[in-house]
Amino acid sequence: MTPRRSPVPLLLWLLVFSSGGVTEAIEPISTSIAVGMAAALTGFLASYQNMFCYFHECCRPEWIYFNRTGLQADLEAKLFGQHIASRIILKSVTGFMGNDNPKKPLVLSLHGWTGTGKNFVSQMIADNIYKEGMKSSFVHMFTAELHFPHLSQIETYKAQLQQWIKGNVTNCAQSMFVFDEMDNMHPGLIDSIKPYLEYYESLDGVSYRKAIFIFLSNAGGESITQTALDFWKAGRDREELELRDLETAISLTVFNNKNSGLWHTSLIDKNLVDFFVPFLPLEYRHVAQCAMAEMKAKNLLADPAVADQVASEINYFPKTERIFSVKGCKTIASKLDYFYT
Ligand SMILES: *[C@@H]1O[C@H](CO)[C@@H](O)[C@H](O)[C@H]1NC(C)=O
Q1: Whose CA is nearest to atom 12 of ligand 1?
Q2: Of 128, 162, 210, 236, which cross-links 70 as Cys (Cβ 3.0–4.6 Å)?
Q3: What is the pLDDT of residue 98?
Q4: How far is ligand 1, taken at its centre, from the CA of residue 146, in Å?
Q5: Whether the Cβ atoms of residue 182 and residue 215 lie closer than 8 Å to each other
Q6: How do residues 277-286 score in pLDDT, each as one tens digit?
Q7: Could you report how far apart the first and last alpha carbons of the chain are, in Å?
Q8: pLDDT band at 18 (very low <50, low <70, confident <90, very high)
Q9: Whose alpha carbon is nearest atom 10 of ligand 1?
Q10: Ligand 1 centroid to 103 CA: how many Å?
Q11: Contact 91/243 with Cβ under 8 angstroms?
């Protein structure tokens, strides 16, 4: 029985042959030299890879490491009016990233009115885990309209999405998947990714336990707003609102709402979502804060008078009280552009 030659020794022989003067040394080449050369070659390959990963994003700690201080600073400096969401996000992400052996992937479901910071928070999480932030090849964003537009092709989408998740997690266990506009997502699609959110050790040899899944939706936004409004009417401080005041509000609407109920119900039933994160509707002062932050981000002199002007030009609801911004902070950037041109 002749053992199959592995490609590495073969390569070594070729190297020795081609290096001229050593030809006569081929016969007595000792195992120790071969081992030494193999080690050198391995070392070369490793340093080549190190070099490669120095310039090019790799699934390695140089490119993926959690910066808790950074996340906290971002949440404090750039997210306004979301004391509950801010707390849950920092705690849950810190807990998950600090655990070397999580039992399941981290699954967050972000709820609230449009423009209240759900997308923004996903971006902050990405920025403080991946060196490349949202541009990282390990961060994936899915939108119903963009990625799964045709109802008739739902079966294809399901298979494709499963393949994407599997392929990407195989490439890098610490992958992050953000599903925007969950309300428009076909329930079948959500069903198809449910297995990946579970407690399984592995599925077909792939472990999903280090991945992060974030769902964004407006579901529950109305009841969150109602709760915030009741608080306001009772003359209570917004910061007194606690998660438990909103938790039932979220799950009740979610269960009762035919459009978004389906996916939620099945995720809640199986306890696959680790945290439901409510985003409160934004008030005038928060909009003004957004404007200030936006001016700073654009390297403009942050002028409170301009912020006030911008905040006073947008629409608020309900009609009589006019407390909450209809579009949150969503149009602030473009309003400012208009202001400065
Ligand atoms: C990873 O996900 C993207 C979509 O974000 C997809 O285009 C790509 O094919 C996936 N990669 C693998 C290896 O499946």
Answers
A1: 167
A2: 128
A3: 97
A4: 15
A5: yes
A6: 999 999 999 9
A7: 81
A8: very low
A9: 164
A10: 24
A11: no
Minimum-distance ligand 1 atom for the alpha carbon of 170: 13
**Residue 218 φ then ψ, to 5°:** -85, -5
Q: Are 171 and 136 in contact (CB under 8 A)?
A: no
Per-domain residue ranges of the chain: 68-278, 284-339
Ligand 1, atom 7, residue with closest C-alpha:
164
Q: Please name the residue whose Cα sits nearest to atom 2 of ligand 1.
A: 164
Asked if the model's pLDDT at residue 3 lies above 90, the reply is no
pLDDT attached to residue 17: 43
Counting atoms of ligand 1 from 1, which one is nearest the CA of 140? 5
Closest CA to 283 of 245, 249, 237, 247: 237
Q: What's the confidence (pLDDT) of residue 253?
A: 57
Judge contact between 89 and 122, C-beta under 8 A.
no
Q: Which two tokens stand for residue 245?
A: 């005041």
For residue 187, the CA-to-ligand 1 centroid distance in Å is 21
pTM assigned to the model: 0.84
Q: Pocket residues for ligand 1 (CB within 6 Å)?
A: 140, 163-164, 167-168, 171
Residue nearest atom 3 in ligand 1 by C-alpha distance: 164
What's the CATH number of domain 68-278, 3.40.50.300, 3.40.30.10, 3.40.50.1010, 1.10.340.30? Answer: 3.40.50.300
Q: How confident is the model at residue 268 (pLDDT cuts 50, 70, 90)?
A: low
Greater confidence (51 vs 171) lies with 171
Residue 3: asked if its preceding bond is cis (omega within 30°), the reply is no
Q: How far is the CA of 168 from the centre of ligand 1 (A)?
A: 6
DSSP state of 97: H
Residue with tokens 């971002």: 74
Q: Please state the atom number of ligand 1 nearest to the C-alpha of residue 164.
A: 14
pLDDT cut 70: percent of the chain above it: 86
The protein residue with its alpha carbon nearest to ligand 1, atom 8, reads 164
